[in-house]
Write a structure and sequence with these properties.
single chain; mainly beta; Immunoglobulin-like; 5-stranded antiparallel β-sheet; 5-stranded mixed β-sheet; 1 helix
């Protein structure tokens, strides 16, 4: 065999060995069933914080069936902001930092730019019941069908830089809520008998507080009723129902006649109140005029009241039955909108 033939034979053998290695490697890759990461995203790409504040970042690894979805979190400036293994960012001092989420199962990554600004951090939050009183944590309140229960978020301290909050509802089949104003208050409507937990969460510091909303069977309206009639302009003694909206000319005088009937209650009724909210004001400056009629404990199960108001701004009128502890049993609600 010539030298040329020997070289050719060696070349063919090496080529076949290379092809065999590639084939075996390819088969092994197919057989191990591993799925590589193609993309990593973070739910927030920029955030602004105050020192000592915390924010939760959430990373999403794609595809959903990636073999290794573990994420490694890093901060490029721990003097400004740190991040733990779960993506929880803690602001340290004023400045800028970049938080990076890196997929362990590949070289894919995503980033969030963090700006820490000097300010007053949030230390806590409370719930305010109808804008009338601060509630205790996990306090239970009764909500009947028809009226709206309004809750306000009160962030502390009052001069906290970031006053933003979000709301959560543990059981949307029992009640639903609508967010009003700057997001600092909600209106809750009953849907079905049961209990649900309403929670407010501060954006800065993730401080939380909750209350329990109880919708009694039948809505709690079996043994008490508030019937209303209104007169204004050329309208005389018109029957109105809870939840109704009255569109009237600004400056119009409204005269309400309220007929209250009630039976036996777990807690004996003591008060009939009329509350007026001016809805054009912010939560902090909301005007609330309260007219209190006392002592419904004279053994009479029917009472008549009259109330007159002049329409200037949009307002919500609440007619409620309650006891000395201000536990509300029945509420009728009317919204008045001027034009």
């Amino acid at each position: 065999m010539t030298n040329r033939q020997k070289k050719m034979k060696k070349y063919v053998i090496n080529l076949m060995a290379t092809v065999l290695i590639v084939f075996v490697t390819s088969c092994n890759e197919k057989d191990d069933g591993k799925v590589s990461v193609t993309e990593v995203t973070i739910d927030l790409t920029t955030i602004t914080m105050t020192p000592n504040g915390i924010r939760q970042l959430t990373a999403t690894v794609l595809p959903d069936n990636a073999t290794n979805k573990k994420v490694i979190w890093q901060s490029n400036n721990s003097k400004v902001a740190t991040v733990n293994d779960d993506g929880l960012v803690t602001a340290v001092a004023a400045g800028k930092a970049t938080i990076t989420a890196i997929a362990e199962g590949g070289n894919k990554k995503a980033q969030c730019e963090v700006s820490v600004e000097e300010g007053v951090a949030v230390t806590g939050v409370r719930l305010n019941y109808y804008g009338n009183r601060l509630m205790e944590p996990n306090e239970e309140v009764v909500l009947t069908f028809g009226p709206t229960l309004y809750l306000f978020a009160v962030v502390s301290p009052e001069n906290a830089t970031n006053q933003k909050v979000t709301w959560e509802n543990s059981d949307e089949t029992v009640a639903t809520f609508t967010v009003y104003g700057n997001g600092d208050r909600i209106g809750i409507k009953a849907l079905a008998a049961g209990k649900t937990t309403i929670t407010v969460i501060t954006e800065d510091g993730k401080k939380t507080v909750s209350c329990i909303v109880y919708v009694p069977p039948g809505g709690g309206l079996e043994s008490a009723n508030i019937n209303m009639r209104v007169s204004y302009g050329t309208i005389s003694d018109r029957s109105i129902t809870s939840g109704q909206v009255l569109n009237v000319r600004q400056g119009t005088s409204l005269n309400f006649k309220i007929h209250v009937t009630f039976g036996s209650f777990k807690h004996f009724l003591q008060f009939f109140r009329i509350i007026s909210w001016n809805m054009t004001e912010s939560a902090e400056n909301m005007v609330m005029e309260e007219k209190l009629y006392e002592d419904l404990h004279d053994g009479i199960n029917e009472h008549e009241f009259e109330y007159t108001t002049t329409v200037i701004d949009e307002e919500v009128l609440f007619f409620e039955l309650s006891n000395y502890s201000r536990e509300v049993f029945v509420i009728a609600q009317i919204t008045v909108k001027p034009y």
